[in-house]
């Protein structure tokens, strides 16, 4: 217990002007900026994920924030595979060839696809399901070729 050294009266305190809307955004594509990213342990403690915060910049719902998780270590191999595929898609969308720190993701601009996840227990929410580069934005990093191009024609080609 801690004494406040004063008495607060609810009728004398200002009412909240908070008009934040936490309902899910409609499904579809939105432009967004990655405004936060951090590595977290799973609730079970046997995996890790990157928690990403996206600030919507358009075409509607500017200023709204949505969150997404990318599994990077998980005992469920399929969950880890999907999470790593999504991380790769996100990185290509913001033009990063490699990432070693979650801070490198922050500031990236991209398009995100939102779906609505229905839940009676927690209320409906958005899932970030896809990523793509903005048109006219940062180019997608091309994959490096594994071998040098050959000047020789393939054996089946006619000369």
- Roughly how much helix do the residues carry, as a percent range? 10-25%
Question: Structural class, from secondary structure content?
Answer: mainly beta
Total strand count, please?
A: 5
Give the terminus-to-terminus CA distance. Answer: 90 Å
Please, how many helices? Answer: 1
Alpha-carbon Rg, integer: 22 Å
Largest sheet: 5 strands, antiparallel
Strand content: 25-35%
Shape: globular
Q: Outline the low-pLDDT stretches.
A: 137-148
The helix/strand series, from N terminus to C terminus, equals EEEHEE
Provide the residue-averaged pLDDT.
86
Strand order, biggest sheet? 3-2-1-4-5
Give a short overview.
By secondary structure, the protein is mainly β. It contains 1 helix and 5 strands; from the N terminus they run βββαββ. The protein has one helix at residues 77-94; strands at 28-41, 48-58, 65-73, 109-117, 125-132.
Describe this structure in words.
- 11% of the residues lie in helices and 32% in strands.
- The protein has one helix at 77-94, and strands at 28-41, 48-58, 65-73, 109-117, 125-132.
- It contains one helix and five strands; from the N terminus they run βββαββ.
Spell out the key features of this protein.
5 strands; 32% strand; five-stranded antiparallel beta sheet; mainly beta; 1 helix
Helix-strand blueprint:
Elements: E1 28-41, E2 48-58, E3 65-73, H1 77-94, E4 109-117, E5 125-132
Antiparallel strand pairs: 1-2, 1-4, 2-3, 4-5
């Amino acid at each position: 217990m801690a004494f406040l050294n004063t008495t607060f009266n609810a009728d004398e305190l200002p009412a909240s002007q908070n008009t934040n809307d936490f309902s899910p955004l409609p499904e579809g594509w939105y432009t967004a900026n990655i405004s936060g990213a951090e590595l977290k342990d799973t609730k079970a403690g046997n995996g890790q994920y990157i928690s990403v915060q996206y600030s919507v910049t358009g075409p509607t719902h500017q200023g709204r924030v949505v969150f997404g998780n990318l599994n990077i270590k998980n005992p469920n191999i399929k969950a880890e595979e999907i999470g790593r595929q999504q991380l790769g898609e996100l990185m290509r969308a913001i033009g990063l060839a490699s990432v070693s720190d979650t801070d490198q993701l922050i500031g990236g601009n991209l398009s995100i696809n939102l779906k609505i996840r229905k839940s009676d227990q927690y209320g409906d929410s958005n899932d970030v399901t896809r990523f793509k580069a903005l048109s006219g934005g940062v180019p997608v990093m091309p994959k490096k070729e594994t071998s040098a191009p050959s000047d020789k024609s393939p054996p089946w080609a006619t000369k």
